[in-house]
Amino acid sequence: MGLRSMETSHKTVVILRCKLILVGDACVGKTALTQSFSSGGTTYPKNYLMTIGAEFNVKQVSIPDTNVVVEIFLYDCAGQSIFNQLDLNTKYYENASAVMVVSSVASRESLLSCSKWVSGVKAAQNSNNNLIGVFVGNKCEFRDGSIDSRAEVDLLEAKEMAESMGMPYFETSAANNINVEAPFQYIAEEFYRRYEDAIQATREG
Asked: pLDDT (tens digit, 9 = 90+) per residue, 118-172?
């Protein structure tokens, strides 16, 4: 999305800007993930509130062993089917750098919808935009291994879905703040890696 530098008393910090779209069915925990990540695990919504359009947040992620910070602009898009049918999310999808498709391990239906969401985001990009993608199975607290487990999605099946979309797979629990930062960190580091590759290609060209 962009680049800026910020002088500090010690060194110059390079800030890269990445637009991240979160998509997935309603009630899978996209907003909870966003709020938990943005607050460093201190905020979790106690009551479900339907997202209308998109919720917007910004969070900086440091790249280890560098002076680079990736500023992630998070667009948490509505998951109700009516919004998808009316294409109200499309304006938020444009010029995205990355997409995070979220399902719930407690909902097989949300797993089966993932490719539809990803296709919608990709369709809004220009042909030269190679999106970074991650697939997140949220609510992993339901995968407790007991006979009463509420998980409807097998771990292997989820990984196969991620592979079919060309994405790495992460399981998270926004409710229990488990592994929440990992998919966002992956996106930030991959965004930085592509930035470095582009710089190198320019130098060599």
From this structure: 998 999 988 777 899 999 999 999 987 665 578 999 999 999 999 999 999 999 9
Classify 182 as helix, strand or coil: helix
Measured from the Cβ of residue 157, the count of other Cβ atoms closer than 10 Å reads 13
* E-assigned strand segments in 25-178: 54-62, 68-77, 98-104, 132-138, 169-171
105, burial (CB in 10 Å: exposed 0-12, middle 13-18, buried 19+): buried
Q: Which amino acid is at 169?
A: Y
Whole-model pTM?
0.87
How far apart are the C-alpha atoms of 32 and 165, rounded to whole Å?
Answer: 24
Residue 3 has pLDDT above 70, yes or no: no
Let me know: does 52 contact 89? Beta carbons within 8 Å: no
Q: Which residues of 3-25 are buried (b: 16+ CB within 10 A; e: fewer)?
A: eeeeeeeeeebbebbbbbbbbbb
User: CA-CA distance, 35 to 41, in Å (whole number)?
Assistant: 8
- Sequence-distant (≥ 6) Cβ neighbours of residue 111 within 8 angstroms: 103, 137, 153, 157, 158, 161
Residue type, 24: G
Q: Enter the tokens of residue 188.
A: 């930030």
- Would you place residue 89 in the very low, low, confident or very high pLDDT band (cuts 50, 70, 90)? confident
